[in-house]
Amino acid sequence: MPSETPLRVGLIGTGIFASQRHFPAIASIPSTVQLAACANRSIDKAKKFASETGIPESHVYDSLASLLSDPNVDVIDALLPSQFSLQAVKDAISAGKPIAIEKPIAANLAQAKEIVAIARSTELPVAVLENFIFWNVIPEIKSLIEQIGDVVYFSHYCTSPFNFNNQYLETWWRQKPEHVGGFLSDGGVHQVALFTEILGQVDTLSALTTQVREQSGDVDTLTATLKMKSGVLGSFTYTSAVSNPRINKLSINGTKGTVIYDFSDKASATLMLYTDADKTGKVIPVPDNVQEGVPKEFENFAEAVQKNDKSLLKIPPEKAFHHFAVIVASVESSKNGGTSVKVAEP
Ligand SMILES: NC(=O)c1ccc[n+]([C@@H]2O[C@H](COP(=O)([O-])OP(=O)(O)OC[C@H]3O[C@@H](n4cnc5c(N)ncnc54)[C@H](OP(=O)(O)O)[C@@H]3O)[C@@H](O)[C@H]2O)c1
């Protein structure tokens, strides 16, 4: 495929995130990717998506097999409940088509390991979409922590109010989750992605979880003590089941200073640097479009496909495996009364 030609995307799973985020993201970079076809097991929903996005009815299907047979489709974009992502990866790779799946990588570690194994066995890019990794603030924080001596400890604290009108609560697969940890893996992997992208991978952890809201379908609240592979210690609290206000804060403490990224209000996030020389702290401007990770995910996926180089992927399955494995280890630790658990490797 010539590099100047936009990749033709076949999208499967025409649900909420497909309409609200993938379609606008793809439409915003037309010289890189274009929606060519779509599929959904309930075909009416696929037809509605097609009419809203300009996909001709001749390229609307009710199965992945049909989508994969469409010669106008170069790559697959799969937005399925996570327990179906493994089969989608198997089918796409068998059909010789690169695929991007949404986070979390899978519903359990066995499936996640299979996805990693398939991705390792092929030159076709298999991407896991994790938009937080593309936040512009990440390289900024990484450069700031070089000014705070040795990093000793961090705290990643994310609590947000339970929203009874949350559209995602209506989806059947979130109400009866097959994915380990329910909402903890659904939303929590984003947070793990953020702090591990800055601080490296987690080695061991001890965690407690609880379920606050019946509507969550499973545990929805987590607090964990972490030991990173680097030796840095940390704590991670995540829940979307409590009350106001939303608090999203990453504090990183070093021997000579502290960096605090407060993204409680996504529209006005703040980044602060405190050092021995400046104890009152300096406000660092947060780079623009900090939340706009989704188009960048597609740009990165497309680059890896166009250059036929899977090493260009920012989130290969191994990395997404780790994000998910941290949540799985937390759930396991809590079931054993908070004992220390080593985070699984793929
Ligand atoms: N990165 C992010 O911030 C973010 C945010 C939200 C969601 N996501 C991810 O995006 C994906 C979709 O989430 P969503 O919120 O859009 O959910 P959704 O609205 O429920 O969409 C899921 C789609 O998958 C289809 N589907 C369900 N069961 C299926 C099956 N057995 N076989 C084939 N298709 C099936 C559904 O079709 P029917 O309607 O016919 O059942 C639906 O169109 C998930 O992986 C989720 O984790 C990511």
Automatic annotation (TrEMBL):
Domain Gfo/Idh/MocA-like oxidoreductase N-terminal per the UniProt entry, residue ranges = 7-128
Matches recorded under Pfam families: GFO_IDH_MocA, GFO_IDH_MocA_C
Q: Which domain of life is it from?
A: Eukaryota
Every Gfo/Idh/MocA-like oxidoreductase C-terminal domain range: 142-342
Return the GO cellular component terms, semicolon-separated. Answer: cytoplasm
Residues annotated as coiled-coil are none
InterPro entries reported in the protein's UniProt record? Gfo/Idh/MocA-like_OxRdtase_C, Gfo/Idh/MocA-like_OxRdtase_N, NAD(P)-bd_dom_sf
Q: Which GO terms describe its biological process?
A: NADPH regeneration
Q: Transmembrane segments in this chain: where? A: none
Q: What is this protein called?
A: NAD(P)-binding protein
